[in-house]
Structures are given as structure tokens and as C-alpha cells.
């Protein structure tokens, strides 16, 4: 009988760990449920490549398209849109893999896939001329798209854009690439984990509101979005930065000096290759200037727009 005690102990330990894991599981939020909370009168949907793409179309005037970054959504541009829609037709969308749009059915997440996706999106909306602003991943998509469409994109505004490889990947992206751990990440996503990652992209944590944390978490929990995040992490990045030299569009490179995800030094790398660019570095600002410092960052953008009309 004594020899069997360790087996019983191990059994109860396993049961205990399983119960703890079960209690931590964050279930996916059904799309039908999350739509009720995150759509409004400006929300629209368009069918592209097997996805029902969520976007918002607000205001009148020249078209200004806003592209969000990794794990974000069109809500990252809320404060900019409120001001810009007074003078522009502002179009922002949940890119494939994110927000209400959700996963691409064929897991097409390379830059060239996003370029083709945007071509279809703009064709559907019959948009022939536009300005683009993009942050992080959205910045990379923006400049890559522009390199193919010089006649369509009148101005390009890059906020802490991706494109050049970096040694220090964000922790959440590292975890998404690790077998077993990424399975836990797929099902266990506590609010504290979302808050921790958002603190990395903000310089001033006091500007990070509970509502903002809730929005990020809800849309990350949108059914199958966490799996999309893991799928994207496994995509082998292709270096397309040689195309930057093809972009003669007036380009603003706006960077938060205290960016913990993409080093501010990369602003210089972009400026060296872009033929018609200008750098502005914002002090005491992190990876997402349009969220953390919306008024100041938008003032800089407006000044650039007026100077390059």
C-alpha cells in the first residue's frame, strides 16, 4: 500500500493543476455577441477573400485611410477620427487577423497578401486617390502598398512603422512561437496579461484607461483571433525594405522616442531609403503615438499635410 501513495499524490497534483488551468481559461467571444458592442452607425462590412471585413466610413472630403498595428483594431484611431472627420472622409478598418474582421481563411498574412487585400478593398469602395496613415504593422502595410501605387497615394504618414528586422521581439510574439506555451496563450489570456503588454507600448502608463484595456481584450478574444495571432507569429517575414526607394510620395516618419517594440533608430533607416521623407521624433511617447498623444501627434500630421498639398 505504501508504494501506491506517490501515485495518488501525483494524481491529485495533476487534477489540481487541471482545475487551476480550467479556471484561468478565457473563452472566445462569439462574433455575434462582440458585434453588438463594437459596431455603430458608421460601421460597415464588405465581403473580401472569404472574410466579412469590418470598417468605418466617417466624414466627407479627401479620403484618409488609417491602418492599425499588431493585435490592435480600428479603435486605435478613435481620437484622430473624431477630429479628422470634420474635414476628411476617414476610412479605418479591422485588418485580416484582427478586430471584427478576424482570421483570413487561408492564413494569408504576408505583406504582399495585405497589399492584394487592400487593392480589393479600395476597388470595392471605388477609392482612386487617398492618403494613408499606418502604425506598426499598419505602417509596414502602408508603405509597401504605396510602393506599388504611386499614382493613388498622395501622402504617406508612418507612425513607428514596421519593416526592418529587430533583435528584441516583444514578449507576446516570442511566446506565440513557442510550442505548448502558445497553446496556453491561445486559451489563457487574463486581463492582467493584456494590461502588461499595453504598458510596453505606452510610455506614460497613466494614459492607459480601463476602457482601452477592455477594448483590446474583447477584440483579442473575438472567436479565433488568438489563433490568428499565433499563425501570424509563425509567418516567416520577408524583407521588402528595398522597395522604400521607389516611394516618391511625400512621407512623414513620426516616431515615439521611447518605443519599446521598434527602436527609434529605425526612423533613420526609413529616412535614408525614402526619397521624399521627413522625420519627427516625439519625446515621452511610446509605440502608439495616436493613442498615447493623439492631440500632439495629429498636430504634427496636419502640419505635414498642409505643407505638402
Strand content: 15-25%
**If you compute it from the alpha carbons, what radius of gyration comes out, rounded to the nearest whole angstrom?**
21 Å
Give the second-level CATH assignment, the architecture: 3-Layer(aba) Sandwich
Q: Looking across the biggest beta sheet, what order are the strands in?
A: 1-2-4-3-5-6-7-8
Major β-sheet annotation? 8 strands, mixed
Shape: globular
* Order of helix and strand elements from N to C terminus: HHEEEHEHEHEHHHHHEHEHH
Number of strands: 8
- Mean of residue pLDDT? 89
Distance between the termini: 86 Å
Secondary-structure-based class equals alpha/beta
Please give the domain count: 1
Q: Catalogue the unreliable spans.
A: 10-23
Look up the CATH topology: Rossmann fold
Give me a quick take on this structure:
The protein is an alpha/beta fold. 42% of the residues lie in helices and 16% in strands.
Describe this protein's structure:
- The protein has a single domain, classed as 3-Layer(aba) Sandwich (Rossmann fold).
- 42% of the residues lie in helices and 16% in strands.
- It is built from 13 helices and eight strands.
- Strands 1-2-4-3-5-6-7-8 form an eight-stranded mixed β-sheet, sandwiched between helices.
- Strand 7, helix 11 and strand 8 form a beta-alpha-beta unit.
- Helix 8 crosses helix 9.
- The N and C termini lie far apart (86 Å).
Amino acid at each position: 500500500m505504501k508504494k501506491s501513495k506517490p501515485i495518488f499524490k501525483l494524481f491529485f497534483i495533476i487534477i489540481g493543476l487541471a482545475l487551476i488551468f480550467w479556471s484561468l481559461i478565457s473563452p472566445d467571444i462569439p462574433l455575434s455577441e462582440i458585434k453588438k458592442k463594437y459596431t455603430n452607425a458608421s460601421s460597415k462590412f464588405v465581403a473580401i477573400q472569404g472574410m466579412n471585413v469590418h470598417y468605418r466610413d466617417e466624414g466627407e472630403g479627401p479620403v484618409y485611410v488609417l491602418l492599425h498595428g499588431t493585435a490592435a483594431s480600428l479603435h486605435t484611431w478613435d481620437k484622430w477620427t473624431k477630429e479628422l472627420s470634420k474635414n476628411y472622409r476617414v476610412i479605418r478598418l479591422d485588418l485580416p487577423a484582427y478586430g471584427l474582421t478576424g482570421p483570413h481563411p487561408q492564413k494569408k498574412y504576408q505583406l504582399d497578401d495585405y497589399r492584394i487585400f487592400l487593392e480589393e478593398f479600395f476597388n470595392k469602395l471605388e477609392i482612386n486617390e487617398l492618403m494613408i496613415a499606418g502604425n506598426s504593422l499598419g505602417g509596414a502595410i502602408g508603405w509597401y502598398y504605396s510602393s506599388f501605387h504611386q499614382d493613388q497615394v498622395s501622402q504617406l504618414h508612418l507612425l513607428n512603422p514596421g519593416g526592418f528586422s529587430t533583435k528584441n521581439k516583444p514578449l507576446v510574439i516570442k511566446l506565440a512561437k513557442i510550442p505548448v506555451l502558445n497553446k496556453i496563450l491561445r486559451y489563457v489570456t487574463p486581463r492582467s496579461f493584456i494590461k502588461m503588454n499595453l504598458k510596453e507600448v505606452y510610455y506614460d502608463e497613466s494614459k492607459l484607461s480601463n476602457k482601452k484595456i477592455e477594448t483590446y481584450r474583447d477584440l483579442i478574444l473575438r472567436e479565433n483571433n488568438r489563433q490568428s495571432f499565433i499563425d501570424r507569429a509563425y509567418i516567416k517575414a520577408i524583407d521588402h525594405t528595398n522597395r522604400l526607394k521607389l516611394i516618391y510620395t511625400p512621407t512623414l516618419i513620426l516616431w515615439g522616442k521611447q518605443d519599446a517594440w521598434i527602436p527609434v533608430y529605425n526612423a533613420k533607416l526609413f529616412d535614408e531609403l525614402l526619397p521624399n521623407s521627413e522625420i519627427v521624433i516625439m519625446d515621452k511617447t511610446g509605440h502608439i503615438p495616436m493613442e498615447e498623444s493623439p492631440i500632439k501627434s495629429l498636430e504634427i500630421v496636419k502640419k505635414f499635410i498642409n505643407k505638402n498639398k
